[in-house]
Amino acid sequence: MLYGADYNPEQWPEHVWDEDVERMREASVTTVSLGIFSWSRLQPTPTTWDFDWLDRVIGKLHEAGIGVNLATATASPPPWMSVEHPDVLAVDENGATYWHGSRQHYSPASPTYRRLAAQLVTKLAERYAHHPAVVMWHVNNEYGCHLPSEYSDAAQTAFRGWLQKRYGGVAELNEAWGTAFWSQRYGQWEEVMPPLKAPYSRNPAQLLDYHRFMSDMWLECYLAERDIIRAAGATQPISTNMMGAFKPGNYQSWAPHIDVITDDCYPDPLDPQRPRNTAFQRDLMRSLKPGTPWLLMEQATDAVNWRRTNVSKQEGQLAAETAQSVGRGADGIFYFQWRQSRAGAEKFHSAMLPHAGTRTRTWQEASALGGQLAALPELPQPKDEDARVALVFDWENWWAIENPDHPTTLDYLSLVREWYGALHRRGVMVDIVPPEQVSDRHHLAIAPFLYLLRDEGAAALTRFVESGGVLCAGPFSDIVDANDRFRLGGFLQQLGPVLGVGLEDFRALPLPSATAIAERAGTAEIESGGDHPSSSDHVELDLTDGSTLRGTHFAEALWADDAEVLATFRTGPSATRPALTRRVHESGGQAWYVGTMPDPAALDAVIGRLLREASVAPVIENLPEGVEVARRGDVVTVINHGPTAATVSIPGTELLTGEEFGSRELAPQEFAFVKSAITS
Ligand code: GLA
Ligand code: GLA
Predict the structure, then answer these.
(1) Prediction pTM value
(2) Ligand 2 centre from 669 Cα, in Å?
(3) Of 21, 445, 481, 533, which sees the most CB atoms within 10 A?
């Protein structure tokens, strides 16, 4: 288990470094990510280099037995570069330039930036590839974090090149983008632009391709640095730190190029769905490289500096969040950062070693946690059998479904996390994958809001049902092809046959209002006024078993041509039409379709039924409210995120104490790792 933090010694005089190393040992630090923002120190002028300080820091760390995750330092170019080479600078959609004075102000498409970054990385790699302290490489930092899109001349040129590679000719581009609409037809490549500022709705296929392009630009920067490091003979794992469900970066397409997944996670202490949302993020990261551990590359020891208000974590929360990561596959825990900065934008950001020193709760918690993690025996690798449920989450669909001009406005991530929440509450382990990665190791696959469905994804989902899996799709799924065009012949062109369902229309409902959400969570119902069938923000569904459920967002008008109707809309614009259907296949596989977004109670009911049909068991049955469990091979992690004590029974031995776990009361934020006798 690796333990450590970002270490930025260039912010401190050299005499502090010795204290740093000593304290690191006290806190059981094994590894630090070194020099992430040190470019202007390493290359103070265009023609001068200074690695002596880095040699000395690495030397001190090595002597103390602390490994180095060496950064390539390319995330914040020095000011001299913007002055000498303004073509490295990023530009916003209004044509305004991003200047130095913060970080990440460079265009990832700029050939000059890439040349200068390559020069720096070559020097670093040649100098340190064989250094015994270097255990890993940290390429750049959070690609795209502050710059989800970018419109410099370099980006415009690169975008055209990217499109030429994808489509070949302008005629193919016109076809793919549907440019017959609104007189957008292109005559030659020079006319093609990124989606620049425009008076009204921009071409959705162009927007989608620009997302793809930006994600690929960051990946290209990564690949260039990775290749230089390898060419210098480095054998250590190479990675770049991700940010969970970060919309601009299609991590599912990056993952195959990254040796070990590393993730930065900053849960908002005020988020009422924090445990669910962080669990989702950990599972998403684990699912990027199934069967291998990942590293939590950054978390905060306490408050951050960048929210409107930056509240502290609760006592014990840091350890509980750490246990959640470990339980869901992490083999290393790191913080931003080691020592709190004295100056700069992040001086109020917490650190392992706070400004107020070692008397602080933060230091005590973080150093004690280091000791606990060091005492853990080696944990099993995450295993295929750990998670039998696949929840489909797809970046290209995310980009496409959130384009404007749709029947309603959808927050894809939030909606998918609602589905995830119903599984998480029940203690069911979930893989979070694109549709192509749903396979026969899964028994249940859930694909909500899969608006853009690639041919290969549809084929994988169909195969899954035909080989005996249980699939639940919908609503607003299988609408467009990879270029955001309707498939001819109507909706559900690809999954319709397997589902036995046709889709006449979406019948969007008014967005659930804040009041309606509060009411749903609490007591009475409210209906928004008016007597139009769509005037309410929800609809009711009658299940064939006599119970009534609720849905929001859509009340789709479905034809159940070749499917059993499990629920019918009772109210709303599709009253009396099918709401929930199922087609049972000869293979024993089942294909369900739901024509609305079930509310939390309805989701729980639907998930319960799906789990039964697919014979998927939770890690532990009947969890008390607020208690989370996760499985990693034969290790069960249990955490009480709730505000009161809760009792849980798990047959097995606690890893940290060697004691029988049995039935145990867990205080708020308390957790345990249990080597369990139960198998999946
Ligand atoms: C990100 C960055 C770090 C730091 C932290 C602060 O994760 O990678 O450099 O800015 O945020 O929370
Ligand atoms: C306006 C425009 C049309 C069309 C409609 C859509 O009336 O003139 O071209 O865009 O809006 O509602």
Answers:
(1) 0.97
(2) 55
(3) 445
Helix axes 412-425, 274-288, angle to 10 degrees: 100
In one letter, which amino acid is 58?
I
Whether 265 contacts 299, CB under 8 Å: yes
List the structure tokens of 139: 């390429």
Q: pLDDT tens digits, residue range 538-553? A: 999 989 888 999 999 9
pLDDT tens for 154-177 read: 999 999 999 999 999 999 999 999
Q: What's the gap in Å between 513 CA and the centre of ligand 2? A: 28
Paired tokens of 228:
């230089």
Instruction: Indicate which ligand has the atom closest to the C-alpha of 200.
Output: 2
Give ligand 1 pocket residues (Cβ under 6 A): 141-142, 264, 266, 298, 300, 304, 336, 346, 349
Q: What DSSP designation does 635 have?
A: E
Q: Of 113-117, 275-279, 388-392, 522-526, give the lowest mean pLDDT range.
A: 522-526
DSSP per position, 539-574: EEEEETTS-EEEEESB--EEE-TTSEEEEEE-SSTT
Locate 471 and state its tokens: 């699939």
Catalytic, 556? Answer no
Active site residue 504: no
Q: Which amino acid residue places its CA nearest to atom 11 of ligand 1? A: 336
Q: Which of 10, 150, 298, 396 is catalytic?
A: 298
Give me the mean pLDDT over the 596-623 stretch. Answer: 97
Angle between helices 170-177 and 204-231 (to 10 degrees): 120
Q: Treating both helix axes as pointing N-terminal to C-terminal, what angle do 361-375 and 317-327 enclose, rounded to 10 degrees?
A: 30
Place of tokens 């509980």: 320
Confidence of residue 535 (pLDDT cuts 50, 70, 90): confident
| Beta-sheet strands, E only, within 448-589 | 470-473, 502-505, 538-543, 548-552, 557-559, 564-569, 578-584
CA–CA dist 79, 100 (Å, integer): 6
**Sequence-ordered alpha helix ranges (H) in 146-199:** 153-167, 170-177
